[in-house]
Amino acid sequence: MDLRDLIEVLRKEGQLVEVKEEVSWNLEASAYTGMAYRVEYGRGTALFSNVKGYKGKGRILGGAYASSRKRSWERSAIIFGMDKNISWPGYRNEFIRRLEHPLKPIVVEAGDAHCKQNIMMGKDVNLLAFPWPFIHQVDGGRYGTVQTHIVEDPDTGWVNWGNYRIMIVSKNRMTGLCVFGQHGPTIFYTKWEPRGKPCPFCYVVGGDPAILYAAGLPLPAGVCEADYAGGLRQEPIRVVRAETNKLFVPADAEIVIEGVMMPGERMDEGPTGEYTGYVHSRSPMPVFHVQCITYRDNPIFPMSVEGVSFNDNMSVFGSVTAGEFYRALKDNGFPIKEVRALNEASYGALVISTEVPYEGYIQELRNFLDSHKITIWGTMAIFVDADVDISGEDMAEKVYQELATKIDPRRDIYRTDNDVLATPLSPMVDAKGRLTGVGGARVVWDATTPRSWRKAERVRAVGMEDLFPEHLLVKAKDIYGKL
Is 11 in contact with 3 (CB distance < 8 Å)? Predict the structure, then answer.
């Protein structure tokens, strides 16, 4: 599957609206996409096929990955060829099964690669020939929000594929959010820049949607996300060698940008509307010098409108991170029942339902949470008892009830005592901390029943099925159905 295949799948599912009227890349396409997130709980995708000034030269796809807020995994299931009506546990188990069977990419010749249909090289390079959207009126430039950055470790040959945004600066220069601690930027900061050498890169837009999921996975250093994209797709990703460096890129990408990051060179990136729902000031980030652009005819630019309701990144995060952390906890012997991302909290909160088998268990779970890279972008975890079913569409309601009724503020709120890594997008950290990566914190809300309580003291979660006999529930449903 590539991005164009996904469009046809969504069209058949009735989840695509093609806007053929002329729409501007300057705020208009993003405003329409932001509104689409609200329609039918956010399942609408908009293809803008007539972009002002770019007709026939590029299209914008808004909300390609966005799903229903209540069923945040639904679009992901469609993307991976699963039944769109699959339950969260069903999706999660299949997602994990595929992750455990990565497949290495297959290399194809340039003549078989869609991304090589057109080539701009050297002085002919022009990023502004494409409809990069100006997404928010507060932004510092036109942005790419749904793409993959590819860079190689010069010492080991390990190639990292990561999802980092880019801001277009001129026809042959870009900058982007490069956070130390993320694999791709860290390779540049610790390997290429100290040696005074330019770092070759490729930025990829489009291709198989599974690539975005793999690029966002909290995988360890030394493994390539392309293998896991193949695992998620259940067939190898097709790749082809870039034109100006030795990196391999998805053969079915819409556009591939090649160039170098120069050591010691910085440029202001931002501001832009963030996934947190806030806007920050500019930050000095590396400069990307573009040497070559290869692209398909009339390429498609997927766009996520950050800061607006429940968007593409929230959908991907909710269906990827929770599944991966569930696997990590199970692999390490924790008797958890379920893990979900609390979608209303952006990237900020994970919810874990668990047994509490012995005294000190919650402390061990907290320590594991703090040590895992998943928590870099979040600040909060919520623990609930195993009998609280958080697998359904009403997960948020149940979590809020647990928070409001079972948290003893004197006993059940834990926070880090020392600074932990802070991201440059954290609205709780001051400007200096965001720049230097310090001043972060984590908090855990423990709504589990204390292990020390006797059986007679314990409470349990109940629902309609617990409170009324089945025959009355059936009758009530029938009566209200008729009414």
Answer: no
Q: In sequence order, which residues have a C-beta less than 8 Å from that of residue 29 and are 6 or more positions away?
A: 23, 46, 48, 51, 60, 62, 133, 303
Query: 208-257: per-residue pLDDT in tens?
Result: 999 999 998 889 899 999 999 999 999 999 999 999 999 999 999 999 99
Q: Is the pLDDT of residue 334 over 60?
A: yes
Q: Say how far apart CA 226 and CA 239 lie, in whole Å.
A: 9
Q: Cα(382)–Cα(56) distance, rounded to whole angstroms? A: 49
Encoding tokens for residue 235? 């067939």
The tokens describing 276, both together, are 């947190």
CA-only gyration radius of the chain, Å: 23
Each residue's pLDDT tens digit, 380-405? 899 999 999 999 999 999 999 999 99
| DSSP class per residue in 199-256 | EEEEEEEES-THHHHHHTS-PPTT--HHHHHHHHHTSPPEEEE-SSSS-EEETTEEEE
Among 163, 155, 298, 325, which residue's Cα sits nearest to residue 229? 163
Tell me the pLDDT tens digit for each residue of 39-64: 765 557 999 999 999 999 999 999 99
Cα distances (Å, whole numbers) of residue 60 to 55, 63, 195: 11, 10, 39
- Going by C-alpha positions, the residue among 167, 237, 176 that lies closest to residue 209 is 237
Rounded to the nearest 10 degrees, the angle between the axes of helix 312-331 and helix 88-99 is 70
Name the amino acid, one letter, at 415.
R
> What span, in angstroms and rounded, lies between the C-alpha atoms of 261 and 154?
14
H-helix segments, 147-197: 183-187
What domains can be seen in the chain, in order of their start residue? 3-303 (2.30.110.10), 332-467 (3.40.1670.10)
Length reported for the chain: 483
CA distance 9 to 306: 24
Residue 238 CB neighbours (<10 A)? 22
Highest average pLDDT, of 248-252, 268-272, 349-353, comes from: 248-252
Give the model's pLDDT for residue 44.
76
